[in-house]
Amino acid sequence: xxxxxxxxxxxxxxxxxxxxxxxxxxxxxxxxxxxxxxxxxxxxxxxxxxxxxxxxxxxxxxxxxxxxxxxxxxxxxxxxxxxxxxxxxxxxxxxxxxxxxxxxxxxxxxxxxxxxxxxxxxxxxxxxxxxxxxxxxxxxxxxxxxxxxxxxxxxxxxxxxxxxxxxxxxxxxxxxxxxxxxxxxxxxxxxxxxxxxxxxxxxxxxxxxxxxxxxxxxxxxxxxxxxxxxxxxxxxxxxxxxxxxxxxxxxxxxxxxxxxxxxxxxxxxxxxxxxxxxxxxxxxxxxxxxxxxxxxxxxx
Length: 300
Fold this sequence. Notes:
It is a single chain. The protein has helices spanning about 50-55, 70-80, 95-110, 125-130, 145-150, 155-170, 185-200, 225-235, and strands spanning about 5, 10, 85-90, 115-120, 135-140, 170-180, 205-210, 245, 260, 265-270, 275-280. The chain is α/β, with parallel strands linked by helices and about 300 residues long. The chain folds into two domains: about 70-250, Aldolase class I (TIM Barrel, Alpha-Beta Barrel); about 255-300, no CATH class. It has a six-stranded parallel sheet with strand order 3-4-5-6-7-8. The longest helix is centred in the middle third of the chain and has 14 residues, at about 185-200. The N and C termini lie far apart (about 60 Å).
């Protein structure tokens, strides 16, 4: 058998053996992973906070039976629930883009906004393919150390290139980093992430979120509110205009809210997922105090 076969479209490498090996690297619990995928992956996400859904096809303890549904049925359900946004998430959406786009075509035809929550391991070709149907895109940027990325089965440069492409192609882009103590929470690494995002656009919202013990990973220290605030302050110091500290509601000071970068007026006040004050949406993305345009995907 040849070592590989190359065609005009594919580079094929024969698989000589398959083996199960223990993995002792770090894993995350936000939404998506290279391995956190639809029937394809490298290792199970031990601390996944969405494991009841994401591991339904893998872990019998999840106890959730998958159901076959059509794109129309999904959109019908979304409209019955008065949803305004369809999101492909939990399993990595990039590897099921053909299926996702069939759902999104139906959704957009019926007035819904469509989005991906992804690990960002994207090629230019797939971004071009999904662009007509995907409005919003959130990337999980796991850190800024390529060695750590390779332990997770990814390559940092691929994700950074995808972030640049997403911004250049006009997706509304937001980036989230799960801050894991002892893994990616050094001042230097957080600063590198913030500087990179500023180099693409200082208007990219950066969400820093707290790791917490979940599923099969309960021996790692949780991220403290103090650590999360420190990460957010680094983002602001490096020039990012919209930095949020998530999933510790009521404990991160001003970093749950949106402020005008020009006049510092409060625009959106939040506690967790609850919006207690919205002064921005009625003005369709302009600060009511100084009229500065606030970038975003605003209703109306």
